[in-house]
């Protein structure tokens, strides 16, 4: 592993809280869910985007409606039968 | 005369002597000239025949003595300036309630009152042949000029009026497209909060439907059903199924895991499109209804038993799909009929069967229950189109059942775009108690859509809806894309009075609360172990993103987030530095390295979020051995058993294998098996005699010897056997007997 590698991590959503209190409240609200959350400091959480549905459902059931910014990248279309996958073409 | 002004007039007028002369010279066959001479009782030469057009012939039209249908026929021809296409004349007579008129028209042609005209460019138009083949309805028909002048005298009175429904009583309150749209908005708003559950058979779960159907209004009934909602009432349940099915065809509802959920993007797209486009899409959705059908629906309301197969309500059974083509046919007939006013309902149905007698027969005969075409047509007209508000029903003074297109129904058919828009301003009042009263008659649908997004509709009286703005509903609306400034502008622009200060303040405050947690979807997380170098990278990225809607959010010395996935600037940064790309939604990275039995190491910068979190759930960290870039963990069998409680061994294999280069090492696999299941059992044996053949053929023959089962302990490979020690003497005997040659050195691997 090179010492100065830049890690580009796609497919994650960022949950950014106003302050540490909101972050704690948020974590408490979703603690029963089976999630993979990386906490960054007092305000930020990173979570795989495919786990957001459950988080939003839980938050909304508790009356919290976070601001949602942006949209998930659409999945790449599967190759058609006439269009072999890149590995096959090679 | 009813509808007269809406019909297009031909520019050619009645048949004059000049035109008839030309047609007799070049358009008609000689036999047709003889036809006219015989009919009008004149000589056969062109001049004698043609002069009749202006002069008239002996028989006079006595309007007062005519049958009503004949009178109406002349009235319609006169109304069109003396000339009309046969099919259109027949259609209009049908719609006016006169039934099939083909034979009556034929008789007027034979008597010379109506003239069949040659087609443009035709040179041998043979009237006898046309009458014999019955193709005169596909031609232009005209009255001669003398007849037209005679008819013109009656233009100002009612003598030639076709049956006009002047005394029509419309149904008390017809359903309107606006009502259906309000129901769609209402049910989608409630399903947004509480997804509609479907039973195993696809029927809407009654309890769930009861929750989302609160406040619905039944077609033609003012106000909401409210406490009268009874889902054991088949007609109410049927109407709700209809609304849900329409919403699904409009893609306002999406089917997901046995529930219907609101698609807010589609809802916004639909209700923010212009009225003509919405009407067109609505009619298209009605035609494409798959999970509801009008035949069963109408039978349901007509049957005293009210027992219809549950399939009718199922959102899995495509009972409406086979009718899509037939519905399209009925709609196309309505489009061609171009009726602007009341017409007899039976005549409308008859027109559908008359225009193509065989299509519906053929189509409906293919269906399992083979519905009668007339029944189907009436079902489309009286149920689908009436419930949708496209068609209105009424009754004439004489008791005839009548129908007419609503303004939006006509617009949906492309017949008339003159639907008045609601007058701007003044459709609502926002009150200090956070109630918003909306006057539906002049409320733009975009206003209703927004209020359903940010509020809860509490009440619907005849033409007034009351919405309540509460913290939860408004914040939900904000989460769906609304914001306080736009909402306040919308309320002020459409309100009779300015929005109270307290309401304006609270809307802003709720937005502040809503913004306390922001979720950025689809961005890119960046990490770098060297803060100083990362500062430089971030600085460059901020510069590259300055004219882009994306922004870079610093999350610490070593972390940042770019609010857009796969932005070119991020790709440039990755290309410019040693980099590693991970994807939380793709295959996990191979970031686990086993260093000892059940002990593994990771570089936290190589590790994705899921792997790193899961390690804490299945292993104990070894802090004494670890450094910032090398974290060591020892797999913990208790934790593993807890994490993968159903099948710990399979669970841990499936977690570890894709995260290790070349899969899970065999040694670790065996050790895990020993720890989590039972150890692999082995048996050690010493002083074993091994017999190896040089060729496979010889080994095969040896195995089939009569004595072989006594000698061979186990076949170890294709050409190798272990020998039972007690049987060595027997083996020696065989070696000698079979002349097997012993080799002093082992052969190559027999694989």
Q: Do you know the CATH architecture of chain A?
A: 2-Layer Sandwich
The overall number of domains of chain B is 6
Beta fraction of chain B: 5-15%
Structural class of chain A: alpha+beta
CATH topology of chain A: Alpha-Beta Plaits
Count every beta strand of chain A, where a strand is a DSSP E run of 2 or more residues.
4
- Lateral arrangement of strands in the main beta sheet of chain B: 4-9-10-8
Q: Biggest protein-protein interface?
A: A-B, 47 and 58 residues
> How would you describe the oligomerization state of the chains in this entry?
heterodimer
Largest sheet of chain B: 4 strands, antiparallel
SSE pattern of chain A: EHEEHEH
Number of helices of chain A: 3
**Range of helix content of chain B:** 40-55%
The number of domains of chain A: 1
Task: Give a verbal description of the structure.
The complex is a heterodimer of chains A (90) and B (751). Chain A is built from three helices and four strands. Chain A has 90 residues and is an alpha+beta fold. Chain A has a single domain, classed as Alpha-Beta Plaits (2-Layer Sandwich). A three-stranded antiparallel beta sheet of chain A has the order 1-3-2. In chain A, a hairpin with a 3-residue loop joins strand 2 and strand 3. The longest helix of chain A has 10 residues, at 20-29. The model of chain A is unreliable at 77-90 (pLDDT under 50). By secondary structure, chain B is of the alpha+beta class. Chain B folds into six domains: 4-160, no CATH class; 177-412, no CATH class; 428-494, no CATH class; 524-576; 593-676, no CATH class; 689-737. In chain B, a hairpin with a 4-residue loop joins strand 9 (391-396) and strand 10 (401-405). In chain B, helix 2 packs across helix 3, helix 9 runs parallel beside helix 20 (445-454) and helix 16 packs across helix 17 (357-365). Mean pLDDT of chain B is 87; it is low at 1-11. The chains are: A alpha+beta (90), B alpha+beta (751). At the A-B interface, strand 1, strand 3, helix 2 and strand 4 of A face helix 21, strand 15, helix 24, helix 25 and strand 18 of B.
